[in-house]
Design brief:
heterodimer; A: 426 residues; alpha/beta; Oxidized Rhodanese, domain 1; two-stranded antiparallel sheet; 11 strands; B: 181 residues; mainly alpha; 2 domains
């Protein structure tokens, strides 16, 4: 079984029971916050006067427990982390918004979810906070247009995790975060003793044991590490309808059956199909790309493909179709395997590569004056170009009117993932 | 504290809060299960915007179509309620209520510092809500969606947001100490 469950990744009217599941998650969330004391603004505000560190303790215990379980499950290969929503990084709006939230926190005594726990138990101040929240969110919606460029672009890094920032394995970050949290718990208790006059001897004796369990679990996550691309590739499954029955294929058999190879005609037509948004990934060397490439193709040499995976996972809209190409097919197949192993959906290979594209669209192209290169080996360009004109040839952007009727066997089966534009807390 | 002596609705005995580390452990397991089953974490401030968008859409649909921020949620035939965060929001309200009920903490009262009036507390509460949600929408998530959920997935931006929330609150805490102490 692979988690997260595909049928659960989005709430939709088509599956009304997903509402029930998310409501159950919300119920447990609200229940836990209330029983931890977060319905009382004094308990929350005390955090900022060092008299009671409940906010810090609850929040960081939750973060480290969830983190250890998440990366443990991902390391064991039962959870596909690339399908887990990771908040994209917008450094500028995140930091300014965070500072504003901090002010709202200490003035109002709540954060949004704790105000729900408070209002629902009859606390009048919680209700005022909640209504203030509706006004604040409304004001943001009305004013966002005045700084929309800054809001959407300043300090944008996409799907970026701390292990990438520091360049260390994710397991090492997990261990460091656990150690940091334990240090903060110790520090927090000392502050409670000094500022809150709290008698620490009455605290439960199980705490050191809990801390030890956390450290051991974090070390285990570090030892297990992350699953290799190869093991992820072997787990990928595709479904195709054969004789009106759904049949499940492995990635390798998809290649063998050539279900993921699309003709130049289909690759070209994708651009003019309303339902899809094709991205042409040209994985050849920059030199080949400069000689001749399809208009709008993005040059990402094969050895640098893994660097842009995080962007491909978050950036493009849900209906994006990735069409990878090399001169023939060898490098493109390698690139396709990397994409598929990284859980990128709707990846296809240009059949016969750029050479085949030139055969198909180049035959009527007067601007393309090239000689065949008899010495070209596998996955090398089969023509000699007198000049490097990139995509300036007519056949790089065939005329859609001229090629209005093209017959081909359609291989692209659009898989719609959840639309991430509104994901996370957004 | 006079409000403390008031009987809770349904007359259930008031129980103490759970230990913070235990509360955190339970919350962490819920957060993990949410990610594990659905790929999404926890959140609530997104629901506030979506409810706002639905209200605006009901009153003035043309205003939605002229506002790019609202357009993403309620433009055209989009239903602003068609998002996981909506059932989480209402579930959280019900969950908070249930915990309050079972633990005898359902009562109409105002939680505040000892030196301010109820009216001052309500005003500050309302203002804090306005400020917090404005910031939460700017940062694309609040303490739940960014600090908690993003923190657990090690999202770099979420850690920046989390530090900024604490920094903002600590920076201003001294100046509003009369509200709480």
């Amino acid at each position: 079984m692979n988690f997260p469950l595909p049928s659960l990744v989005a709430v939709s009217a088509a599956n009304p029971w997903t509402y029930v599941l998310f409501a159950a998650i919300g119920f447990a969330f609200g229940y836990t916050l209330e029983m931890s004391g977060f319905g009382d603004s004094r308990k929350l505000a005390a955090q900022f006067y060092f008299t009671e560190m409940t906010v810090l303790k609850v929040m960081f215990t939750a973060i480290v427990v969830a983190m250890v379980l998440l990366f443990g499950a991902a390391g064991l290969g039962i959870l596909d982390f690339s399908l887990v929503w990771v908040n994209p990084t917008y450094l500028a709006s995140g930091i300014l918004g965070g500072l504003i939230m901090g002010v709202g926190f200490i003035v109002g005594g709540f954060c949004p979810t704790t105000s729900l726990a408070s209002a629902s138990t009859g606390k009048i101040d919680g209700m005022f906070f909640m209504f203030g929240g509706f006004v604040g969110a409304f004001l943001f919606g009305e004013t966002e247009q005045y700084f929309t460029n800054w809001y959407n672009n300043a300090g944008y890094y996409g799907r970026l995790t701390l292990d990438q920032v520091f360049g260390i394995p994710v397991g090492a970050v997990v261990v460091l975060v656990v150690l940091m949290a334990l240090f903060m718990f110790w520090g927090g208790e000392q502050l409670e003793r000094i500022f809150g006059k709290k008698d620490l001897s009455k605290e439960p004796k199980l705490r050191p044991m809990g801390a030890a369990v956390l450290v051991v679990a974090a070390l285990a996550v570090f030892v297990i590490g992350s699953p290799s691309l190869e093991s992820k590739y072997n787990k990928v499954k595709f479904t195709r309808t054969i004789d009106e029955k759904p049949v499940v294929f492995s990635a390798d058999s998809m290649l063998e059956q050539r279900y993921v190879f699309i003709t130049p005609a289909e690759a070209f037509k994708a651009k003019y199909t309303q339902s899809m948004n094709p991205v042409y990934l040209d994985v050849r060397s920059e030199a080949d790309y400069n000689l001749y490439h399809i208009e709008d193709a993005v040059n990402v040499p094969l050895d640098r493909l893994e660097e842009i995976i995080p962007i491909l996972l978050t950036e493009p809209p849900a209906n994006t179709v990735f069409i990878v190409m090399s001169n023939d097919e060898t490098a493109a197949v390698q690139a396709w395997k990397v994409l598929v192993a990284s859980s990128i959906q709707n990846a296809y290979i240009l059949e016969g590569g750029v050479n085949n594209w030139i055969v198909f669209f180049g035959k009527d192209d007067k601007t393309l004056q090239v000689q065949p290169n008899p010495n070209a080996g596998d996955d090398q360009i089969k023509y000699i170009f007198p000049v490097a004109l990139g995509s300036k040839y007519e056949s790089c952007s065939p005329n859609p009117q001229e090629y209005e009727t093209l017959t081909f066997e359609a291989k692209i089966k659009l898989q719609l993932k959840r639309d991430k534009s509104g994901g996370g807390c957004g | 504290m006079t409000t403390q002596t008031k009987k809770s609705i349904f007359n259930r005995p008031e129980k103490p809060y759970v230990h913070p580390y235990f509360g955190g452990l339970v919350l962490g397991i819920i957060l993990f299960l949410a990610f594990f089953l659905t790929g999404n974490g926890l959140g609530s401030s997104g629901a506030t915007s979506r409810i706002d968008a639905a209200l605006v859409d009901a009153v003035s649909p043309s205003h939605v179509d002229n506002n790019p921020y609202l357009l993403k949620m309620a433009g055209g035939d989009k239903n602003p309620f068609d998002d996981w965060i909506i059932p989480v929001f209402f579930g959280a309200l019900l969950g908070g209520f249930s915990s309050g009920f079972f633990n005898g903490r359902l009562k109409f009262m105002t939680t505040k510092g000892p030196n301010i009036s109820n009216r001052t507390r309500w005003l500050m509460s309302f203002l804090g809500g306005v400020i917090f949600l404005y910031g939460a929408r700017m940062a694309r998530g609040c303490t739940s969606g960014q600090a908690l959920s993003g923190g657990a997935t090690l999202a770099a931006g979420s850690w920046a947001v989390m530090l900024a929330i604490f920094a903002g609150a600590y920076a201003v805490a001294y100046f509003v100490r009369k509200l709480w102490n």
